[in-house]
Amino acid sequence: MKKDLYLMRHGQTLFNKLHKIQGASDSPLTNKGILDAQKVGQYFQKQHLTFDHAYSSTQERASDTLELVTKQSYERVKGLKEWNFGVFEGESESLNPPHAAGQISYGDFFLDFDGESATQVQQRMVRTLQQIMQVDNTQQVLAVSHGGACFMFLLNWLDYAQVKQYLPLPNCCVLHFTFENNKFTFLEMLNVAH
């Protein structure tokens, strides 16, 4: 039986606004981030979209976003956390490395700086969301995560030529997937906050 996953990126944060690298570190939602998350919640209400279960990353910007979208109870899950960028955390985004020839992500770059590789983030997200969708009495799920983590998850199911039309993934965008036989099928990106 097909199930639905609505995978959302958190609202705009202070670090997003200041163009700072924000992975394992955290910063608060801006007023825009708050208003955008509320718009998504209003959209879900107008569409009569309800969720059997809701989950967020353990990072505050994700849980704060979820609490603005819905008042239902939810579970915080470490596997939904953002890519850890190691010693680059909190630094200017201008320090992000250029992609190596033929690469579509940062690959293993951050491993040498106490961070995660692209593959580690992707495998963590896929494993976590598969486990979430296999929970009993689950038909429709909302999960709030992060830009880099959502990008790597999306790349597991689509090729880069398909993914790049959605980049950069905007704050508060919602990626809608179906889930069947342990596989996700991407349907659409909802960008109702913008």
Automatic annotation (TrEMBL):
Pfam families: His_Phos_1. SUPFAM superfamilies: Phosphoglycerate mutase-like. It comes from the Bacteria. It comes from Bombilactobacillus thymidiniphilus. PANTHER family: BROAD-SPECIFICITY PHOSPHATASE YOR283W-RELATED, HISTIDINE PHOSPHATASE FAMILY PROTEIN. This is Histidine phosphatase family protein.
